[in-house]
């Protein structure tokens, strides 16, 4: 009779080995779930690898795809997407801080060893300083830029609520918004477009006054789309008379804000025009403006590279001596003497060892290489 | 007899362990870690408010953005200019270094300038030659992900629609072919460029969109994937063919030029229509950033490799040798003059 100890059967590996699963498929939790149509993510699930289920596509992968799918590579692409300058310096840290010094020193040629060590120290210093300095300075700037865009979106709604009826009416007057236009732009859950149109016109079909329109929009909490993005500010002279009403974008940078406004305007025009040539022209203009905004974004993320270039280089030069001293144990100027001393001492030790070996242990003599 | 086989799965330790884990309450996050990340966020906010907004809100950034607006990968220009600034500083320092003698200073400075020029040229050429290969890898990378896969298909669909519409519009005469091609040489160059960087939008057809246009004009080769043969055929037609065929090729090139200009790139597509393919907002955000990062990584890798690794290793020794030889030559010349 073969009685197995109970516990040994119930570890995962032993269960597989013992054939328990194949003999009793319904007693395995996962198989049970599969067989009887239960949700198979219940309990222990081999198929769930920790990733979000619809994120991975299962297929035979080549080596390249395995690398691309790895966690490290995904981190690298994410990092490069968010912080261009820091990613460039990270690559430089790997290449100039690690690989280049190693190759420089391991290259053949004993004569210019000092030069080589100096070159290695320089490349190491530039790699380390480049990475540290760039990351320290550019990462908060990148996040700050992100915050500007976030802020622009966040402040839109708040500022919309702050708008008074008068300001809203001013905007409607200034932009010559007809009831049709407002009905097009207004986002409301309760009212349909026709209802809005009806409310904005009086019995004879003429549009109601601007103030009433503004009141209506405010009452229904409708938002006219471009209004989300700015507040109107009145500029007054000494007597308190309004000289002009100005549209201010609190969130966006000024150089971006006027482009956002223009894109919205052009998009509205695009929806209303029917002429094909005109449409193409408008589309070109919109694309140009959008590309310009993208260019500004790229510039903001990368221009810090230029600003930090000179201080970084100066810091690198300053850091070469300590790196040479603590990493390679070489000090410039003293190195020649030191090397000579070292050579003589090591030589004597080696000679002494050889003498001992040759005298006392003759068997080891055959194993000492490089002596011929 | 195996006693253990009669045990119900309810007593399976693995099962119970997982059950317990599910029942356990989630542990609160560590206090210090949260504080640090919160503090960092606050710090970044302040940086954005008080530093980024006033600093970047000026005409220089505006103008720079305008200059690079049509650049396919603008990061590399910034990297190149950054290197020029750094090297310029090193050059200046070498030239004003009083410890060195005058001749050596000058030659070293020239040496550094020459290295800079060479590496910049090398980096740009390597970057350009990797372009189409990298784009294929970009597709491969995004297709590993279900959302990215469907987004790429959506982009292809949109581009192929645009391609068809452009062809129709040109045929109807709604879109004018404004491009001017100077002579046969320029035409040959454009044909070569378009064939080499041809884009396959339809999964089923192996032909690129430019090859399709050529096929419509009656120019075909036996193997649709043999690009060199197609280039040669076009070249021979342009050199010795009839004027009618030549014009057909020119028209195909002009149409293709419009199509290429209106192509929507994957990053723009994700920005505009990404929500159609990914419902989860955070996942879409991650996908966008990774896709952008992959596109930028080409230039970052190439420029890093050339500037910081290849050129310093490969060029320093030969240039040093040249420098020494020049110094020797100058010494000899001096001696001759003295005699």
Would you kindly provide a written description of the structure presented here, covering whatever features stand out?
The complex is a heterodimer of chains A (372) and B (339). Chain A contains 15 helices and 4 strands. Chain A has a domain at 154-302. In chain A, the strands form 2 sheets. Chain A has a two-stranded antiparallel sheet with strand order 1-2. Chain A is elongated, with a radius of gyration of 37 Å. With 372 residues, chain A is mostly helical. Mean pLDDT of chain A is 71; it is low at 37-45, 47-57, 225-229, 334-346 and 360-372. With 339 residues, chain B is mostly helical. Chain B folds into 3 domains: 33-62; 76-129 and 302-338; 134-279, no CATH class. Chain B has 13 helices and no strands. The longest helix of chain B is centred in the C-terminal third of the chain and has 58 residues, at 281-338. Chain B is extended. The interface between A and B is large, with 89 and 83 residues.
Question: TL;DR?
Answer:
Chain A is built from 15 helices and 4 strands.
Keywords:
heterodimer; A: mainly alpha; two-stranded antiparallel ribbon; two-stranded antiparallel sheet; 5% strand; disordered C terminus; B: extended
Furnish the topology, listing elements before pairings.
The complex is a heterodimer of chains A (372) and B (339).
Chain A: H1 12-18, H2 20-23, H3 29-35, H4 63-69, H5 71-82, H6 84-106, H7 113-162, H8 165-174, H9 179-185, E1 186-187, H10 193-200, H11 210-219, E2 223-224, E3 231-236, E4 242-248, H12 254-272, H13 276-302, H14 304-326, H15 335-360
Helix pairs in contact in A: 5-6, 6-7, 7-14, 8-11, 9-10, 12-13
Chain B: H1 13-23, H2 31-56, H3 59-67, H4 75-95, H5 102-129, H6 131-143, H7 146-172, H8 184-196, H9 209-216, H10 227-240, H11 243-262, H12 266-273, H13 281-338
Count of DSSP-assigned helices of chain B:
13
The secondary structure category of chain A is mainly alpha
* CA-CA gap between termini of chain B: 111 Å
Characterize the overall form of chain B: extended
Largest interface: A-B, 89 and 83 residues
Average of per-residue pLDDT values of chain B: 82
Question: What percentage of amino acids of chain A are in beta strands?
Answer: under 5%
- The count of β-strands of chain A is 4
**Given the C-alpha coordinates, what overall shape of chain A results?**
elongated
> How many β-strands of chain B, per DSSP?
0
Query: Are there runs of chain B of 5+ residues with pLDDT below 50, and where?
Result: none
User: Please, how many domains of chain B?
Assistant: 3
C-alpha Rg of chain A, in Å?
37 Å
Rg from Cα of chain B: 30 Å
């Amino acid at each position: 009779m073969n009685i197995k100890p109970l516990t040994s059967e119930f570890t995962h590996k032993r269960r597989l080995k013992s054939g328990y699963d194949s003999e009793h498929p319904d007693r395995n939790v996962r198989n049970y779930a599969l067989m009887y149509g239960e949700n198979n993510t219940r309990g222990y699930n081999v198929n769930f690898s920790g990733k979000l289920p619809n994120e991975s596509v299962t297929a035979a992968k080549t080596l390249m795809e395995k690398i691309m799918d790895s966690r490290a590579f995904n981190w690298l692409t994410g990092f490069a997407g968010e912080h261009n300058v820091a990613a460039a310096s990270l690559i430089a840290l790997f290449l100039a801080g690690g690989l280049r010094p190693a190759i420089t020193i391991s290259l053949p040629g004993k004569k210019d060893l000092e030069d080589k060590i100096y070159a290695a120290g320089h490349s190491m210093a530039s790699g380390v300083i480049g990475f540290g300095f760039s990351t320290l300075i550019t990462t908060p700037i990148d996040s700050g830029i992100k915050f500007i865009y976030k802020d622009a979106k966040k402040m839109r709604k708040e500022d919309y609520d702050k708008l008074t009826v008068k300001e809203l009416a001013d905007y409607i007057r200034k932009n010559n918004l007809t009831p049709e236009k407002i009905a097009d732009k207004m986002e409301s859950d309760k009212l349909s477009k026709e209802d809005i149109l009806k409310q904005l016109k009086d019995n004879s079909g003429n549009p109601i006054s601007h103030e009433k329109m503004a009141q209506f929009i405010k009452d229904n909490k409708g938002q006219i789309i471009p209004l989300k993005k700015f507040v109107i500010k009145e500029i007054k002279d000494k007597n308190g008379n309004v000289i002009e009403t100005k549209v201010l974008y609190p969130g966006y940078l000024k150089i971006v804000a006027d482009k956002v406004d223009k894109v919205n305007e052009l998009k509205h025009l695009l929806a209303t025009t029917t002429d094909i040539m005109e449409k193409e022209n408008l589309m070109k203009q919109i694309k140009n403006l959008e590309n310009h905004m993208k260019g500004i974004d790229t510039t903001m993320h990368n221009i810090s590279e230029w600003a930090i270039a000179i201080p970084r280089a100066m810091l690198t030069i300053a850091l070469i001596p300590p790196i040479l001293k603590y990493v390679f144990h070489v000090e410039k100027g003293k190195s020649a003497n030191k090397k000579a001393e070292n050579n003589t001492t090591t030589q004597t030790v080696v000679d002494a060892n050889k003498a001992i070996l040759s005298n006392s242990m003759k068997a080891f003599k055959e194993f000492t290489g490089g002596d011929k | 007899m195996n006693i253990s086989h009669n045990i119900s799965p309810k007593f399976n330790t693995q099962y119970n362990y997982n059950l317990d884990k599910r029942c356990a309450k989630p542990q609160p996050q560590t206090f210090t870690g949260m504080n640090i990340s919160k503090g960092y966020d606050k710090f970044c906010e302040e940086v954005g408010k008080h530093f980024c907004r006033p600093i970047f809100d000026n005409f220089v950034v505006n103008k720079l953005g305008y200059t690079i607006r049509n650049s396919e990968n603008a990061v590399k220009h910034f990297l190149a200019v950054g290197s020029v600034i750094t090297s310029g500083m090193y050059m200046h320092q070498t030239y004003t270094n009083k410890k060195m003698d005058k001749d050596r200073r000058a030659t070293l400075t020239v040496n550094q300038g020459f290295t800079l020029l060479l590496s910049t040229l090398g980096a740009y050429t390597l970057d350009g030659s990797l372009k189409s290969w990298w784009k294929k890898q970009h597709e491969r990378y995004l297709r590993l992900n279900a959302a990215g896969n469907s987004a790429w298909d959506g982009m292809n669909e949109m581009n192929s629609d645009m391609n068809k519409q452009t062809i129709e519009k040109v045929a109807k005469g709604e879109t004018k072919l404004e491009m001017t091609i100077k002579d046969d040489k320029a035409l040959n160059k454009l044909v070569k460029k378009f064939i080499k960087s041809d884009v396959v939008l339809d999964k089923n057809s192996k032909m690129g969109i430019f090859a399709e246009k050529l096929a419509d004009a009656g120019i075909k080769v036996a193997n649709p994937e043999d690009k060199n043969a197609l280039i040669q055929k076009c070249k021979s037609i342009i050199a010795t063919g009839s004027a009618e065929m030549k014009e057909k090729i020119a028209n195909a090139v002009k149409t293709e030029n419009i199509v290429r200009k209106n192509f929507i790139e994957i990053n723009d597509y994700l920005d505009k229509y990404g929500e159609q393919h990914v419902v989860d907002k955070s996942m879409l955000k991650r996908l966008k950033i990774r896709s952008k990062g992959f596109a930028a990584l080409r230039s970052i890798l190439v420029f890093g490799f050339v500037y910081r690794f290849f050129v310093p290793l490969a060029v320093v020794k030969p240039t040093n040798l040249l420098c020494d030889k020049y110094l020797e030559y100058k010494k000899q010349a001096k001696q001759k003059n003295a005699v």
